Amino acid sequence: MPKQSFSQMLTDIDTIIKQQVIPLEPLFLSQQWEQLYQQMDQIRLQVKAQGLWAPNLPDSVGGMSLSIRQLGQISEVTGQSPLGHYCFGCQAPDAGNAELLHMYANEYIKTNFLLPLAQGEIRSCFAMTEPHTAGSNPTLLDTSAELIDGQWVINGRKWFTTAADGANFTIVMAVTDPDAPKHLRASMIIVPLDNPGYQNLRNIPVMGHSGSGYYSHSEIEFKNCKVPANHLIGEQGQGFKMAQQRLGPGRIHHCMRWIGIANRCFDLMCQHVLQRQITPTSTLADQPVIQTKIAESYAAINASRCLVMETAKIIDEQGFDAAKHHISMIKFEAANMLQLVVNHALQSMGALGMTDDSIIAFFYREERAARIYDGPDEVHKLSLAKSLLKKYL
Amino acid sequence: MPKQSFSQMLTDIDTIIKQQVIPLEPLFLSQQWEQLYQQMDQIRLQVKAQGLWAPNLPDSVGGMSLSIRQLGQISEVTGQSPLGHYCFGCQAPDAGNAELLHMYANEYIKTNFLLPLAQGEIRSCFAMTEPHTAGSNPTLLDTSAELIDGQWVINGRKWFTTAADGANFTIVMAVTDPDAPKHLRASMIIVPLDNPGYQNLRNIPVMGHSGSGYYSHSEIEFKNCKVPANHLIGEQGQGFKMAQQRLGPGRIHHCMRWIGIANRCFDLMCQHVLQRQITPTSTLADQPVIQTKIAESYAAINASRCLVMETAKIIDEQGFDAAKHHISMIKFEAANMLQLVVNHALQSMGALGMTDDSIIAFFYREERAARIYDGPDEVHKLSLAKSLLKKYL
Amino acid sequence: MPKQSFSQMLTDIDTIIKQQVIPLEPLFLSQQWEQLYQQMDQIRLQVKAQGLWAPNLPDSVGGMSLSIRQLGQISEVTGQSPLGHYCFGCQAPDAGNAELLHMYANEYIKTNFLLPLAQGEIRSCFAMTEPHTAGSNPTLLDTSAELIDGQWVINGRKWFTTAADGANFTIVMAVTDPDAPKHLRASMIIVPLDNPGYQNLRNIPVMGHSGSGYYSHSEIEFKNCKVPANHLIGEQGQGFKMAQQRLGPGRIHHCMRWIGIANRCFDLMCQHVLQRQITPTSTLADQPVIQTKIAESYAAINASRCLVMETAKIIDEQGFDAAKHHISMIKFEAANMLQLVVNHALQSMGALGMTDDSIIAFFYREERAARIYDGPDEVHKLSLAKSLLKKYL
Amino acid sequence: MPKQSFSQMLTDIDTIIKQQVIPLEPLFLSQQWEQLYQQMDQIRLQVKAQGLWAPNLPDSVGGMSLSIRQLGQISEVTGQSPLGHYCFGCQAPDAGNAELLHMYANEYIKTNFLLPLAQGEIRSCFAMTEPHTAGSNPTLLDTSAELIDGQWVINGRKWFTTAADGANFTIVMAVTDPDAPKHLRASMIIVPLDNPGYQNLRNIPVMGHSGSGYYSHSEIEFKNCKVPANHLIGEQGQGFKMAQQRLGPGRIHHCMRWIGIANRCFDLMCQHVLQRQITPTSTLADQPVIQTKIAESYAAINASRCLVMETAKIIDEQGFDAAKHHISMIKFEAANMLQLVVNHALQSMGALGMTDDSIIAFFYREERAARIYDGPDEVHKLSLAKSLLKKYL
Asked: Mind listing the UniProt keywords for this protein, alphabetically (chains A, B, C, D) (predicted)?
């Protein structure tokens, strides 16, 4: 895509986010789900009409051949609202799932799952994390899939399966080769969620809410859940490798989304302090202790953006392997930037920052997870350091 | 009270908190208000029967003549659960209101408001903070009360009026002497909440929830709200002075409550990491990065407790004025300790820490307010420093 | 310069730094000045012979027309040793002075001062900071220069005049127009240091040492110090504007130098922990608490480098004004990164980190100044925030 | 000692520190050792005359039977100057050595070493840390002592042997029982330093200086160094146990000394900002960003002092074992408080803070070691956490 038109595209997306998506947030914050989804569906139609739908999609299913850097920039813009990615059809985990199916799935899966997913007709989820085993250690994975009589028989429990509520299918990570070397034990299998062997046990209450539909995280169970053999994605035993593969663009997606959130909080903080009178002749914006928070937030956001965009550049130009250290590094760097900025913004808003009259309180509680999911800070730091130290041996 | 029996009292309270109060938290977290209040009422009866009710109360209304230090120690124990103070009848703002009425109110008010309050028959609230003026600057207070024909006519809007929902009366802070020196402009007046000039506009949604009953924060309005002249508390124009007075024991109460919360989070963190398997032969507790969080939390909690207890000692032995710097200092010191410990605990729990399966997520989001209410960190730091610097002039 | 050869140039510089410059550091740390300067002079000759001398210089005096980005990259490499910039003839304040004279000085000054300076035959200094006035507030500048009988008569005291000891001339900032608007009061004037009206009062002991020659910071005095009228640089009253101008490339120079220091500390930390045995079968490098420091340092360094290089890019492509916010932001961002990394490195070295057996202790104490000179963190944050807030009005 | 007279004693010590000791610091900072020691000797005479000498000493050698808490309070006062403890004869490592000899040494040692030490006639040192083994792991101790023909033959190398330069004897920790359980392998032996088998290899340059006399840290060597069998302190194999024993009061001593340093920095910061003009009508003290540093420093100092004094109280009332967690905790808590306060003070002083015109720069560089010696932060945190976690099993 020519530079000119991409820049226009970013502007168009930003306009929709600011003028149409953000005004829906009060419905979201007050859990008026039905009305919310109805109105978001309207926006989705318009987004499709404007040719802005699912910018992340692979070419073959109607995508735009954007670079990782460009996808990152879009994610920053849509990330300003928790409703943004959904409205533009590039929300996790569907985005990652689509890319995965595009790369590895057989024709049957592509036709029956990828196509309707790409068109936004159905939603999907990704069942990897388990309640009783540490995600950071694949050898502990409990969920199993056995090939019996031409069918995968799946047993196990998963949680934090984002958006399972209302999804049409899930990709499940299960141990298929228990005796293989530990990184070759698991495979990915597609399970339609109307399967009688599948059950959504509950939408987990997260930070006070169980959510609904796309905005939820479920605990789910597979009990002798049977799917045909051709529901295997890619090759048997390649589950971890594909999960790793899925991680790269997803990392950029998330980190840039966090930067979008930080931008939004920064804007709200600046707007608030300018209008908050504290003496007859001055506002909070005149207070050096507030100015300090603004400057620190701005520097943190910009440093993170530069680092994440450099990571995207390395991926675009040299591939994922060359970006390995960067992909690990931006996870904790950007997540901590986010926590800093959200905290500064909330504190600057005073009591208002605690209320749902502003979106900041939502970001504060919900995005705390940024330092945990896809590997907590601590795990990324240790693995990054070990890898870096090898260069000094 | 003899030292021995006070120590026994602490143990008794701790037992009730651990065995009866904490088990009710799931009702609280899932907003099953009716069932929750019913069960808490049962505990209140038992607490009264055991002679543990309202330890903070003034002597004349059935109190125990405890020192500020002892009240602080009780607050640390009841603070372990968000339900603790309520079950023991020493919850804010009722506790502070009772003390205030005890010290300053006329007999009419004592008989009609203080007595039933002390016995836990009714609840009260305290209407000070306003949505459109900075609480830190009293000259900006908007709400007014005019004495017309022997009645106070009150007009204005307040918010973050904790526990207004279901309260029987409020103490309202209003400007009665607009032309007086700025710290002598306001007075405190009692308003029964069935007054037609009073309206509870909404329970403010805070961190995702509007709450209910005692567990709520309201935005309220006074429109030509009339109460008899004898509803004035203390002397006219003494509002700020009494508010200041109310602050000292309240500060110890809150800081020790935060330490109780930190203790709870610390316990949950230690218990979790010991049982969370990460390899077949080790748990999270074996991880040095987790151990570091545990040690830092422990040191922070203990340093805060020592500092708050020293503050209480100074108040007990030398009075509030002598403790002025300490009262200001512990506000931000303990609030930041709390944020540190809650964050460490949440991070150590991993994904579980984000869920309402543990109470930590509640503390994380709700107690963020500790750094804001009763004066944000920033305001306390500046005023403390200005006062300290005077000694060097 | 073609990309290929610039990359080769960086490699060549790095080789000299690592193989010849760093081995001289023990002389530096033990204050064996004579021997040190003698050996550095040898390296300078070789640097000139290899065509690597003074890469920062303006074209007209033998420079290489490098971009700000390229100069930044060189500064990162030479910054690895406190001796690096001097050996390559691009040390502050000479580098900034040369650029300033190149842009603003008359032919007389260029011939007599700029040329020998550019060739490394003489050294210079820059006298701006005063002991008794706040550098952040130009209206407080005390030093004055009056034009009397065709001569500037200068009076005043300066300190932290880096490298005054042994310098041939200084550029002095003095008030020439006391009644002009405050940013138009000062001018820059060249003073040869053999002037009888000039005195070097002392090399200020900084962090335990008074230093010597280039490596020193002096307190100096002008007492009826007379220089010819044509020693004025640029136009009268343009002192602050030129100082501002001087700042942009200087900022990149310093920030990239700090990144070079951070790289050096990072290398030393990694090397040390890998060889420091703590049990018969493991080293410090196996300790997760050390790994955490390594990962955090790496992320901080990379984020800073990205941000500083983006700043350089904006300067190169859009000029200084467009980079105003960035130039302010990188000052405190990079200085704090440096403090973090040096602290992590020192702590990882244990007792060795406190000794002069490693260069880290030097960086720890000496580069603490990074957060102070050219405007302390606090000043940059406030001015950045004020500027950012204007966009929200 | 009666409370009244102890309080008077503290005042007397403070007066001497402020009026006589602090004025000698310029000699110290400019390494005018001879003049410095001469003048300190004068103060020591006066201190003895006033009956304030060596307050820490055991009763039997002229001590005052002070509690650990009281010793802590004295250490806070003398700690205000790096010269304080020496002038009052209670400097480490002599203080700890005296206590150790008092508790464990035989009569021969007491007469020949303890008595002159207690009277300040000679100085001693304590040789434990080794350059090539991790102090945190006793099994790695290299230095050995073999009993041959009634003599201990000692071989090994030590470093960071504080005050070895000019000391009369050292206590050396050496492996005497290599095959014993690892905590029973080492013993303590007294070595007079005129022994031909002993050599002071160098005063280690620490943060730019090798120091002199008491103010130095040496690298020393024992080569077939022979001393009589009765130079053994206590029982063979009890080295680690005695070292542990020595640690408790030493920890209070050091932590309170750090608080004294922090007090000093706090005073200097407040005094400086009040007189540093930044506009014609205001000083640095009017800047909220400075006030914030002052308030944070004050809170940190007070929290630390409370925690350390509580530790001393537990030791006094319940003994060392009961204070085990506290003794570990205050090490890193107080050391980090110190780093925070010194950093805040230095930053508030601006460029002046980097110079030796103020003592802050010395504290900044020299006391960085607080987070390293006697076990780095990291080691204390891990061991504290492991011990705390046992309570949750």
From this structure: FAD, Flavoprotein, Oxidoreductase
